[in-house]
Structures are given as structure tokens and as C-alpha cells.
Design goal:
12 strands, 148 residues, mainly beta, seven-stranded antiparallel sheet
Length: 148
């Protein structure tokens, strides 16, 4: 029996992204179409974390996150050796590279900065293509709607 996910994989040549959420109350759905994969996350508390892993055929060409938030005061995107910290409206995110098990700041690179925008009752985040290469076995995202 073919599931909807299997059918999408066959028709579009894209495997679904695995999403592991840190909080049990949060919920995620992966939507895949011809243009992109979108990870839709409903965050009950406004603070959360998720680990994203590519399907068998690797990362999609375009990856977008859709968070059920009205604000975004903190957003971190991390891989094994790279980290970017930013927020909605930020023009120069902080970029770090892991060196000898320690995160060290490096010069800002616009090609690593997620594009964040508000769309009605959600925050949309486009993950830059440089994060979606074959070397990235997983991405970790952390978010905070408002610091308390």
C-alpha cells in the first residue's frame, strides 16, 4: 500500500525530512511540493527545539520552516561545525564555527543567514542552500518567541 509520503517521494523524487521535537506538546508536519519542503511546527509554549534529518536522497533544494509564533526574539540554526544566531528583523546574525570543541565567532556571511519574515500568525524561515549540502547529516533549530 502506497502512503501519501511514499507517493510524494516517487513523484517528486524527494524523501521526507525527519523531525524530532524536544517538547512533547509541540507538533510538526512536513509538506513537500515541487518547489520546496516546508516543516510546519506548532509550538505550544513559544520556546522549543527540533532536529531535522534529510531523507535517503538528501536535503531538498529549498527548505522552509513555518513556526506558529507571532514574534521571534531568538533563533539558532546549528550543524556539527556551524551555528548562526539571529531573530526577526536582524540584519547581521552572529556566525560561529566549532574549533577544537569550542564555538568561536567568525565574520558574518550573508549566504549562511536564514531569511526570516512574519506572515500573518506565523514566522517563516528560509534555510539557505549552503546549509543543505550532503555533509550536513542533521540540523538543529532552537527558537524563542519572546524572552521572559
Amino acid at each position: 500500500m502506497l502512503t501519501a509520503t511514499m507517493l510524494l517521494s516517487l513523484v517528486l523524487g524527494v524523501d521526507p525530512i525527519a523531525v524530532t521535537l524536544k517538547r512533547d506538546a509541540d507538533h510538526a508536519v512536513v509538506r513537500i511540493d515541487e518547489k520546496r519542503a516546508t516543516v510546519v511546527i506548532d509550538s505550544k509554549t513559544g520556546i522549543g527545539s527540533a532536529t531535522l534529518s534529510p531523507g535517503k536522497s538528501g536535503w531538498p533544494k529549498t527548505l522552509e520552516l513555518s513556526l506558529s509564533l507571532k514574534a521571534l526574539e531568538g533563533f539558532t540554526l546549528s550543524s556539527d561545525n556551524l551555528r548562526v544566531r539571529t531573530f526577526l528583523g536582524d540584519t547581521t546574525p552572529e556566525v560561529f564555527r566549532r574549533h577544537d570543541d569550542k564555538w568561536e565567532p567568525v565574520e558574518f556571511d550573508v549566504e549562511l543567514a536564514p531569511r526570516i519574515r512574519q506572515a500573518k500568525e506565523r514566522i517563516q524561515i528560509e534555510i539557505p542552500a549552503r546549509w543543505l549540502d550532503a555533509d550536513q547529516k542533521q540540523l538543529v533549530i532552537d527558537w524563542v518567541d519572546r524572552y521572559r
